[in-house]
Every structure is written in structure tokens, then in C-alpha cells.
Design goal:
The structure is a homotetramer. The first copy, chain A, is of the alpha/beta class. The first copy, chain A, has two domains: 181 residues, 3-Layer(aba) Sandwich (Rossmann fold), CATH 3.40.50; 135 residues, Rossmann fold. Chain A has twelve helices and 13 strands. In chain A, the strands form three sheets. Chain A has a seven-stranded mixed beta sheet with strand order 3-2-1-4-5-12-13, sandwiched between helices.
């Protein structure tokens, strides 16, 4: 079998572990040939690829990033690819394409699959918001980085009797904020899933100070937004759904709290640190398993599917199922978090 | 409600996170009173306990160990407790006991429960070998520590063209060896679940050297043992099942490989480092969720059960179910690992 | 002897290690009594203090922050304290005051000392800019945090062919930027010590891309500023010395580079994460040694001095010497860094 | 100029950082050519080397081990090399040899230098026992790994009221034990520099238990040994100096303490984990500076010398000076450590 593999979308710890696993399983067990397309779908369309043997993937398991590079693709070019997908596969000589990516990548994968390209997808997002799988690799690493930051900020907040607002990744789903907030012992968590009222945070901080805990750390997803009209100081922009949105919610919220509380409140924006670097053991194992199962699925002709963690097992789910809706944080998970604020 | 809590058995990162979560949920949400027994069941029988309020659990989320202490209990004393379990609960004034522990602790919990003590258990083991739950807290931390060690050892092995044998915890189940071996990219993994033949490892090392990879790292669970008669150098003791066992299998195996290969092979025994220290974010979240659900179960009168992770949900499973059989590494998980050696 | 101790100024990993060391050495070896003032000099003036015995400092060695709290002091109140320093010491019953702090704290210490208060200082700053000592504790931890961030960002930058600008702490001296930039392998470092020209960075990035290294990471101290008139896009404010300064130089520089290069350039502002959390082993050792020598100096009546690292030895230097000039990054250290860009 | 470089002796985090720094400085600044000999002096004698350009050292800064490999050399072959050192240099076309290594490597470097080979040495040892330099790279990483292990073990020891004996590296000098013991807050430290009496440790543990601290951690250098006749249980072997030595002092001491105290005492042997893996920021900076200065020294014809850290500066010291005596832990450093037990 000749397998093509590519990585697309944002950086995510564990990508290299998938690539390595695919190559090992395919080459060693099945005697397959593997080629890697450069810079995502671009490399597929531009015929930029290189052969991947055991040596090519040596030493990459613990490394962040992706040895294949990644890039965004214009929609027009994808449509073009879909028009003659079977010919493209034939021309490249690949029996299956394994794209590793997030929602956009998997949607593209589905379109290619529907157009006749044999495809097995591997989901990837540090946001953990793909509904068909219990978890995605990269998420554990991102949560770990954010948690370590909160651990560090707590000592500073406490020593200086200060409020800290930590903005973590999560534009549409608040999983990173939820889990790093819980793990770091944040005293407030704001998610995109439900608008928050700064007044609630003010009350929490004042109650803490009243009982002698003269500091607080609040963990905010970058996509969180206040309930309309609740931010007294400063105004946000109105988005396409009519919601008031603040660009840089961490900074806006820290300002709001400082005004209302009359105490120092400092924002910390973690940014891209969350999506780079060596993956945790959890993510390396999950990524390795995904790679293994993607190769097996290819050999069993289970195309149009992607790998998914279900409990302790890896299953193959239809791509169609995977990308229909975003997995957001349900209310009961938020209830669990709130009780330990 | 008045809740008694205790921690028993070996150290496990995340114990304090459970205690903190139980106290927060019980006190803040339900207005309960919580007392903590010292040194496991001993404190229960000796009436050694202290009240646990929010201040008592402040700052412990990220700390390893257990603020309540832990100790082994003689069987005789447990039997005694079971004889008058309801009276004991009444005397202590507790409406429910939440024991956090491993197989032994949960078995004791079940006996107490059967004897009339209202009990809600929380499973704990770094070995991850409790069958009723997908994962236990502490395991992720142990795997993380072992993986970091393997990462470090690989550079040394490579620079010195050497074979390294890393012995990790896992007496009856090889989960730590499996996952840290996969995550660290070990070239061989030996589990208690199936006897290994040193000849296979010798072959693997020789093949690696032949293709220019002049080093190897082998990850061995402390409970792993060779197939009978396969260790040519040195003899093990025969255990109760008639198996040949080596005390300190890591050291024995390194010696065996050094003899057979004529190359340096060094053992590294990770030991207790794996079970102490600050828990990973994953373990803190799981432990916090377990604590929350234990309190809820108590308030819903769901006694005789323990918390369990099933997929992404926490469920309450009968204690009877939890302790019947050990969760060992199935063959398909081992297959996944082998393909990336 | 009765020793008073206080921590003042910004948070700095290792403060607790000094406190612990002072208490251990004083109590165990000399049979002294130690009291800790709360919230820096404020506690001294407000007579807010608590006794510190071995139990009070148990378990704090590895913890960030300061168990005594810290706060800024108004100048007026300090002047007032200096007027009757000997009386104040007598009233509090302290034979020596050990203030742990940065430039401001040590200047205050010197004034108190000149006014008749027996003082032994301990220098503290994550910025490492106190000239009388080779190194200060906290610096190593800050560099470690920043280096880990750069390690992570490099993989993301590489996978996405992107320029990353990391802003680290260092308002007046660029030590953190210098060492984390060297340790992380940054491709450009901007320090407060000498104005930079964005054109040089543009050239460096273009040369890298030209030889196939399609990413770059630039490490900028928060106090770095461009040579006048060199930032083509956007304008800074003119400071008291007539220099053009940009608030948020990391963000400003990323914007500038994006404009000039026509490539994505993203800022990451590490912020307070650098000054909190568990100190590195290096900082714990240095802080512990400083505490030990401060107590010995007190017992030898060597007042008006502070602890300083000179080579491998701890020496006592006059406070007057310590605070006269800032230790900035000399040109030869910058030369060393530049050769590995 | 044509520069030859090699790494010899045990693994040490920072070796790759030196190699990278030498190549960058030499190639970029001076336009030199650099070749790397494989497996230490063996590669020199066997003419096994490869050219090192910027690409060859890309991405190695943060990686442990050495890309050049390392190996022991038989004395005979070295003597042979010394006989015709100038011819060897001429034949290889190298204008200078930069060997990076410990005592043995530097002694060999000195012999080669005395025989007419232009040599500039770079000292390397995780043990920090080279007298001519304040510190060596690798040491900080080793201390960091050992400290993290002690941090972890303390929670386990405390939860189980147990004594832990941690054996760290250091055959002839106790620097790692000293600094990781101080940084980890060990309650006893045993060094090769002075024989210990187990009775002192027993007393310390009993005093701790008496005041309610029911655990202890003891940090032992692998080269530490008891004062003669003080180990009551078990007997050591007599070494060439007539001292009683125990193979595996950590294990022997734990056994001794368990017997005497009647409490569990467990050994943990950290082993090779201490010398592998990614170097700390401190070690990367020091290694990079050493590489830079080695190249400059070569260009200034300062042969027969090695790089050394003196305070904050890198100086060039005669190789003769460097290897005359071991830098051991002086009594005053031990005094500092003892006060915080």
C-alpha cells in the first residue's frame, strides 16, 4: 500500500507522534510505502512530498510541531481538488490519504472522501472540541502548560494581594479554561459557552478577601464574553450574532475588575506557548494509538472515517459524524468546577 | 450531613485533591461537616480525626502525599470494625464514610458497607489496575515521571552506545510500563501480563545496532518475569505459582543482556519517585471530579458504590464490581505498543 | 538575639527559602528568636508581625511567593521611620532587621541603617541587576520559565513558518532576555541597554528564510526600545530622556515586523508567570546561603551590609555599594549571544 | 582556520550546546571550517570525522547527549598519539583541537598539548569537581533532576512516616549531594569528603519523630562511606586506602537505618537519569559561552588552556592547573547545609 500523510491547521503537540506511528506501523508491519505532503493540503495540490521511512521519523516522538509543516488552504483550491479527487490519488500513486487536523481539515477530508479519494482522518485540536472523540491529543499538553502558569501566578497573586486574570486558548469551547482552571485551583472560570457577569466575579473576590484570602486567580477562555451590558467600564464590539465581544477579553476583564474592586488586577495572556513544545506522555500515547489505528483502518478499507477515543478504546467513526457539531462544555462539568472555587 | 474521609494504602498523587474537593463540595454546597481520619482505617478505629473546613484544605490541590496520612491495617482490626460497623458510625457521628484507596482499601470498604456502614469509595492507584474505572488518578503522574526519565536516559544511551533497562512500578499489571514505554519511545516493553524471552530483546538490540541505531532502552514493569528457563545467566526464585521470579528484574535483565550482547547494559530503578510529588493536571481534574461525585452520591444515598470514570463521565459503580478482578493490559494494547519499537 | 525579618518589593522565587534559612540558622544554631513583619516595611511601621519558629517555616522551601507578604511603602512613612530608627528597633525589641528586597528595599535599608537601625540586607530581584552580587536568586527561575516558553514557541514558529516575538521581564537591564534568549536559541535579542533597529531584525529573518530556515524567534526585554525613528509603522511616546518608547514593545515590534516582512509575526508576553512559582534548585541554594550568611553577619555585628555572591563565596558588602548603580548587560556578553543567533 | 572538536567521557547535558556554539562562532564570525571527531579520541586516532556546518548543529541546543558520540580510550593508543601529535594534526589538517571532557579527557588534552598539538580544552562534568572553574555545565541539570526527585520523595515519606535514602551521583566529590540536598530540603547529607556515622543520622531521625515530623529524607553521594566500624549491620569491602566501602551505599544505609530505627527506610538510586536529557537554561548558557571562548582562544593562539568560569567571566586557564587536584566540598559549604536540616 502507498500511504500519503499530511498535517494541517494550527500547531498541536503530538502531530509528530502520529506521523511516526503511521510510518512505523505501515512500514514495519505491512511493508507499506509512506509519503508525507508538505504544508498540509498545499503540498498535496502542489505535488510537494517526500518519502517517509523509519529514519525520517527517528527522534521526533517527543518533539512539538510537525516535521511536515502546516498551512492554510484557500477554499477555491480545495474545490478544484475535489473535482478530480480519484485522478489526483491515482496520479500521486497513493492508496489512501491520512490527513491529521482539526475541524477545517476534517471537513476538507470529508469532501475529498465524498469525491472519491480514499481517506482516513486523524482528529487534532488542542481545544478538545471535536464531538466524536472523548479527547484529542494536544489538549492535555495545553492544559498542562496553562496549569503550570496558574500554579506560578497564584504565589504571586497571594504575595501581593492581587487579582490575576489568565487568558487561555479556546475560541468556541472552554475545555482548556475548564480543566486548567480546575487543576490550577482558579477561583473563577469564564467560558465561551455561557456569558459571564463581572459582578459575580467581583462578589467572589470580595468574599475571599472578607475571609482573609486576599488574592484571586480567574481563568478566562479567549472566546469568553460578558452578558450584554454587564461590563460597566469600556465597550466591546458587536459581533455577527449581536453579542458584545471584547478583543482581548483577559485584558478587558482585568481592567473591569480593577475599576470595580479598587484593587490591582493584572491580565496574563498565555498565547501560543500552549500549543507548542514537547507533548505530555498522555498526548504521545493517544497520538501513537491514533496513528496505529489509522493504518489498520486503511488496510481494512474503512475509508471516510477518522480515529476516535471512546472510553479506553480507539474506534473508527464516520467523518460526517465528526464535524457536524462542536463539543462544548456541558453544564454538569461546569457545576463540578464551580464547587471548588 | 457529617462526612468522614480517610486515605489508605500507598502514596498516590491526587489524594489531597480528592480531600479538598470533598470538603469544598460538602461544606460550601451542602453545608455539611467533614472530618478526616488520620492514617487510614487506623484513625477510624482509634478515633483519631480532625475537622476539615475550607482552611484545612487550602493550598493542598497541587501537593503530593495526603494531609491525612496513610497506613496499613491489620486484618484482625478490620474484622472487629465490621462486627459493629453501624455502632461505630453512630458513635463517630458520621452519616457516610468516604475511604480513598486501592484494592485493599476498597475491599475493606466493601466489607464495612456489607456490615452496615454507609460507605462511598474513591478508587486510587498509580497502577491503573482497577477494572471498574477507565483510569485512576495518580497513574498519569506516574507515567509522566517515568516518561521523563526515559527521555533523559535515551540521550545517555545514544551517546554511549549502551543498552538501558528502566524498571518502573507495576507488580501485577503493566500499565505504567506500557504507557511510559510508548510515550518514551522504548524499544522493548516487558509486562507482568506475559512472560518475556530475553532472546527476543537480544534480537531487537542486535537488529537496531545492525541498522546503525547503536543504543536501546527497555522498559520493564517490576512485576515482569521471564518465561521459564529463558534467563541463561543467574537463577530466579520459584514463586507460589511455580514461576521463576527475579527479585529486582531490572537489574537481573540488564545483567542478562550484558552477558549475551557483550555490550554495556545498565539498569535504572525508578522506585518511589513515581508515586510522590505534585500531580499532573489530568490527575488533579480526575481527583477533583471523584471527590465531587462521592459527595453527591452520599447525598443521594448511593452507598456501597465507588466513583468511576467511564468515557468522559463519572459514574457510581458497586464496590463489589470494582474489586473482583484486576484490570490487566490486554493483548491489543500491547500490539499497538510493539509496532513503534 | 532577636531578629526581625521582612520581604518587600515584587514577588521573587526564593524568598521563602531565605526566610526558612534565617529561622533555621538563628533558632537551631544560635538559639535566637525570629519575628516576621507582614507586608514589608508596612508591617514594621504598623507593628504587625508574628513569631517565626521551625514549624512556621516548615514546608516552604520549594514554594514561591513569600509567607510574610509584600507591599510598597510610601516614601513619607519611611522618612518618618528613619527619624527614630533606634527607638523603633528598641520598641520592637529587635537586635537586627533583615530586609529582603530589591533596589528600593535596599535603599530603604541603607537609610534605616544610616539612621541607627542595625540592618543586614539580602538582595532580591529576578532582574539580576544589582551590581554588588554576581547573581540574585529568582533570576535563574525567571530565565528557566522564559527558556521553556521559547522552547515551546520555536516548534510552533517552525511548523507555521512564522516569526514570534517573546517579551520577557527586564525594565532597565536585559539579563533575562540575554540568558533566556541564549538558552532558548532565539535568533534575535533586544535589550534596554542598547536601542535596536528593526531593520537589523528584518535582515536576519530574511537571511534565515533565504537559507531555508523559515521561522524566527526574537526575545525582547520589556524595557527594550528602538533607536529613534527606526520604527516605521506606529509611533511611540517620548519619555523623560527624550527617547521614543513603546508601551508593550513586544506587541509593537511584532506589528512592525509583520508589516515589513509581509509574514505573520506574533507577540507573546510572558508577564508575571516569570516571577511566581517554585524556585529552581539553583535559586533555592543561593537563597538558603544568603539567609545563613545574613544571620552570621548579624551575630558578628556586621551591620549596614548585605549578602552577595562573589564567585563561589558569599561575602558581605556595604549596602552603600550595592545600590549605587544598576548592573547592566555589558557589550561582551551581548557579543557572545549574537554569535549563536 | 580548521578546527577539530570531540566529546569524551560520560554523558553530560550541555555537550551539544558547546558543539553548536563552537560551530556558530567559528563559521559565522571567523569563516572557519569545523570537523567533529566521532566517539571521542577514538575518532581522532581512527580518522573518523565529519564536517560540521550550521545545518549540522541545527536544533541540538536543547538536546541532551552528544551528536558526536563518546567513548573511552585505551591509554596505549593515547601514548601513541602523543608521540607524533604535530604530524597527526598536520595530517588531519586541523589548526586546533577542542576536546570537551572531564578529568581524563583534559589530562589527555594536556599530554597532547605538551606533545605539540595545538589544543584548547572545554571542561565538562556533572560532578562539578574541576578546581579551576567555579562551575561546570551539566552540574545544574543533575542537581535539578535530583532536587525534583527529592521533592517528590518527601511527600511519599511524609504520608507514610518513612525514612527515604536517596543516592545521587558523586564518586569523589559530593557537590550534587550537597546542592540537591540543600535544594530539596533533605534532613541529612552524606558526602565522600568526610566519613559519616549512621548513629548521627539515627539521632536526627529520632529527634524529628519526637517533635512530630514523622519522616526524613537523607541524600547520599554514591561515593560517601561510613566512618570505619560504624555500620553495625553488614560489612563493607576494604578499599586500597584501607577504608571500609559499601557497594551501593544508598541501599546499605537504608538497611542499616531500618535495623536501628525499627522503621521503614527505603533506598532510591537515581542513577543515569541525572546525566541525560535536556540541559537547564543555566547549563545551556554556560556551555554556549565556553564554546564561544574556546574559539576565540584558538584564534588568539592561546593553546594548552581551557575555558573556566570565574565569577561572571569566562577565563582561559592552563590545562596543567585544571587537572592537578579535585575540587571537593569544603567544610564551610557543609556547615551552611547542616543548619537547614
Amino acid at each position: 500500500m502507498r500511504i500519503g500523510i499530511l498535517t494541517a491547521g494550527g500547531d498541536c503537540p503530538g502531530l509528530n507522534a502520529v506521523i511516526r506511528s503511521v510510518v512505523h506501523r505501515a512500514v514495519t508491519h505491512h511493508g507499506d510505502e509512506v509519503i508525507g505532503f508538505e504544508d498540509g493540503y498545499k503540498g498535496l495540490l502542489d505535488r510537494r512530498y517526500r518519502p517517509l521511512d523509519l529514519n525520517a521519523v527517528s527522534g521526533i516522538l517527543a518533539r512539538g510541531g510537525t516535521i511536515l509543516g502546516s498551512a492554510r488552504l484557500e477554499r477555491g483550491r480545495l474545490a478544484e481538488a475535489c473535482e478530480n479527487a480519484p485522478e489526483l490519488a491515482r496520479e500521486l500513486g497513493i492508496d489512501v490519504l491520512i490527513p491529521i487536523g482539526g475541524e477545517g481539515t476534517l471537513t476538507a477530508a470529508r469532501l475529498l472522501s465524498d469525491s472519491g479519494m480514499p481517506v482516513v482522518g486523524v482528529p487534532k485540536t488542542i481545544d478538545n472540541d471535536i464531538s466524536a472523540t472523548d479527547r484529542t491529543f494536544g489538549f492535555d499538553t495545553a492544559v498542562g502548560v496553562a496549569t503550570e502558569a496558574i500554579d506560578r501566578l497564584k504565589t504571586t497573586a497571594e504575595s501581593h494581594q492581587r487579582v490575576m486574570v489568565v487568558e487561555v486558548m479556546g475560541r468556541h469551547a472552554g475545555w482548556i479554561a475548564l480543566e486548567s482552571g480546575m487543576a490550577g485551583g482558579a477561583h473563577g472560570i469564564c467560558l465561551p459557552e455561557r456569558p459571564f457577569d463581572p459582578a459575580d466575579l467581583v462578589k467572589m473576590v470580595e468574599e475571599r478577601f472578607a475571609r482573609g484570602k486576599k488574592f484571586a486567580v480567574i481563568c478566562v477562555a479567549e472566546g469568553a464574553h460578558p452578558a450584554e451590558g454587564t461590563m460597566a467600564y469600556g465597550k466591546g464590539a458587536i459581533d455577527q450574532y449581536g453579542h458584545e465581544r471584547f478583543h482581548g477579553i483577559g485584558t478587558a476583564l482585568a481592567g473591569e475588575l480593577e475599576h470595580r474592586l479598587g484593587k490591582e488586577a493584572r491580565p496574563v495572556i498565555l498565547g501560543h506557548v500552549q500549543r507548542g513544545g514537547s507533548p505530555t506522555a498522555y498526548d504521545r500515547v493517544l497520538a501513537t494509538r491514533f496513528g496505529w489505528h489509522a493504518v489498520e483502518a486503511a488496510h481494512h478499507g474503512r475509508f471516510g472515517r477518522m480515529t476516535a477515543l471512546r472510553g479506553t478504546r480507539i474506534e473508527m467513526v464516520p467523518l460526517a459524524e465528526a464535524v457536524t457539531e462542536l463539543k462544548t462544555v456541558p453544564q454538569d462539568r461546569m457545576d463540578e468546577a464551580e464547587s471548588v472555587f
